[in-house]
Amino acid sequence: MDKTTEPTTPRTLAEAHEAVAAIRPPQTRPLSEWLVYYQRSAAMYAEVAEIDRGHHHEALAIAEREHQLAKQIKTRLHTSAADQVDAGKGP
Description:
The protein is built from three helices and no strands.
């Protein structure tokens, strides 16, 4: 699957792992893209947790981890923006 194609909704934890790997941005991409990736990943695992009941707790744990990573990136983006404003480079 190419990275511009919207993946189908995964129905199992294994399918979720594959779908998340398919949309993972290269490490060199900006934090804003990584934020979107982790937000999508968290939502996908949370949805799979309700479908693949045999992996419910594992999928929820992964969803929470992805949510926390998104939260960390969001904080870094806000801190960076505030630093730019303080330095007179932003709005």
